[in-house]
Prior knowledge:
- The protein is 15% helix and 41% strand.
- The chain is globular.
- By secondary structure, the chain is mostly beta strands.
- The two termini are 26 Å apart.
- The chain has 2 helices and 9 strands, in the order βαβββββαβββ.
- A hairpin with a 2-residue loop joins strand 4 and strand 5 (59-61).
Amino acid sequence: MTKTATVLMDRDVLNSIFISAKKLYPRETVLLLRGKKKKDTIHITDLLIPPFATYGYGFANLPFHMLPVDFSIMGMVHSHPSGDKSASDVDANNFYGRIMMIAGFPYETERDIVAYNCYGEKILITIIDQ
Length: 130
């Protein structure tokens, strides 16, 4: 993946991320992003609930060895109840897949989510209304 990749995401997927984050607030949530990669674009179409995930105050963990072998998983998304959408060192060290997204409180608009590549650089997210 190049550093200039973009992410397309269906609005229903964005809304589902926000619903999950609101349900667990003030704990963090974590979900897997399923989609397809074509050239420098990743299209996120679905979410998966990771098996045996732990949702806590200031953290969300998942046992990577329990994840399914599924090449359509493009990465993961987790929430930051503080509203800070910056990737921490812990986030960077637990990078999985091609992208990582962070949803920040209040989980309402497109401005409340960011995507990062494996270099820790922000990636443009385009929301698709279908």
